[in-house]
Write a structure and sequence with these properties.
It is built from one helix and 14 strands. With 211 residues, the protein is mainly beta. The strands form three sheets. Strands 1, 2, 3, 13 and 14 form a five-stranded antiparallel beta sheet that branches.
């Protein structure tokens, strides 16, 4: 079963640079309303920092994580403008690794010319250790499809994920409210025994069509 899932995900996963996505020009799809946070998947760390393009009308399309010395200490969030007039793809990064970051794993989602795909939920996999050594060892990104009419469809089968060695416990998933997609991510981390990511929470916003 794990091998089959890996094959399916290999088809879905694409490099963030290749995620060229756009909406029909006959409508203007915008993010609107207040930004609402989810709870943390994993553990809330002693510290938290955010990755978002505040007010930039962009949504989250994926996350990559690098490790060094067995600690997840480098995270990058990938964003796509929800309308072509707002620009193209962007990314924001937090890096606490000492020296060069190590191996990278992606949980990113595909796109097409007619539709875009945005993250609406996250589920973290941990090493299931005590708080002093607790860390991210896997991630599942749950995905919504948004069309040019601003309609959001959540497909339980559409997701991207990665697992590292010692991914032992899939933590409680966290999802944006219905009708919303992720526009940012809050990164919780601890520093005892080396800086490491311990939990993730989404920042969510509604999608609306402006005639």
């Amino acid at each position: 079963m794990r091998i089959l899932a890996a094959l399916v995900l290999a088809v879905l996963l694409v490099a963030p640079e290749a995620m060229a996505q756009s909406f029909p020009t006959t409508s203007s799809v915008r993010l609107t309303g207040p930004v609402t946070p989810t709870r943390v998947s994993g553990q809330a760390g002693g510290r938290v920092e955010s990755l978002n393009h505040s007010g930039a009308n962009t949504f989250l399309t994926g996350i990559s994580v690098r490790e060094r010395n067995d600690n997840p200490c480098d995270i990058r969030a990938y964003f796509r403008a929800i309308s072509p007039s707002d620009g193209d793809t962007h990314s924001l990064r937090l890096n606490w690794c000492s020296g060069n970051s190590g191996s990278i794993r992606h949980a990113t989602v595909p796109g097409s010319n007619a539709n875009v795909y945005a993250v609406h939920g996250l589920r973290m996999c941990s090493n299931d250790r005590n708080r002093n050594n607790y860390k991210l060892k896997g991630l599942r990104a749950m995905v919504s499809q948004i069309n040019g009419n601003g309609q959001i469809q959540r497909d339980p089968g559409l997701a991207a994920q990665f697992e590292r060695t010692n991914c032992r416990e899939w933590e409680q998933p966290q999802r944006c409210p219905t009708g919303q997609v992720a526009v940012g991510v809050d990164v919780h981390y601890g520093t005892r025994g080396g800086t490491r990511i311990t939990g993730l929470a989404l920042q969510c916003q509604a999608v609306q069509v402006v005639p």
